[in-house]
Amino acid sequence: MSAYREGDRTIVLIPARMSEAEERRWVGVMLDKLAAQENRSVLGDRELTERALRLSEQYFEGRARPGSVRWVTNQNTRWGSCTPSEGSIRLSHRLQGMPEYVVDYVLLHELAHLLVPGHGPRFWRLLEAYPRTERARGYLEGVVAAARLPQLPATREE
């Protein structure tokens, strides 16, 4: 079961085998969950924007000024992205729950793109200001490597 927004419509997906009473109940549950998720996201995005501005002040003398910073759920192959022409930064929801220094690194990486679009030497010099760049990159590389490991079958404790 899932619920999501598509433009100004709300889509709720439920199994066809449900009775009308179950359907009504689960549609209500899913709409409540969607509303709660959206409320958390709005607050999270505001906090994320404030965090980005603090990091810009601390490491880039306030020169990187994002127009928007938000969490997104449609980035499964990237940790973040930036559109310099709009000043928008998007961070993958997969970063939520990771150590703060990792999220800060990804934010700084995207903030740096507001100042330098590519990944040339000038871009990497900007990120040298953040003392945990290499550690954060190693952490993210480890997450990617762990995701590629074969999953072992669960063992039953006796």
How would you briefly describe this protein structure?
By secondary structure, this protein is α+β, with helices and mostly antiparallel strands. 51% of the residues lie in helices and 15% in strands.
Write the SSE topology.
Layout lengths: L1 E5 L2 E5 L6 H41 L7 E5 L7 E4 L4 E5 L7 H16 L5 H7 L5 H16 L10
Parallel strand pairs: 3-5
Antiparallel strand pairs: 1-2, 4-5
Helix pairs in contact: 1-2, 2-4
Structure report:
- The chain is α+β, with helices and mostly antiparallel strands.
- It has a domain at 47-147: Zincin-like, CATH 3.30.2010.
- Helices cover 51% and strands 15% of the residues.
- The chain has helices at 20-60, 100-115, 121-127, 133-148, and strands spanning 2-6, 9-13, 68-72, 80-83, 88-92.
- The strands form 2 sheets. It has a 3-stranded mixed beta sheet with strand order 3-5-4. A two-stranded antiparallel ribbon has the order 1-2.
- A hairpin with a 2-residue loop joins strand 1 (2-6) and strand 2 (9-13).
- Helix 1 packs across helix 2 and helix 2 packs across helix 4.
- The longest helix is centred in the N-terminal third of the chain and has 41 residues, at 20-60.
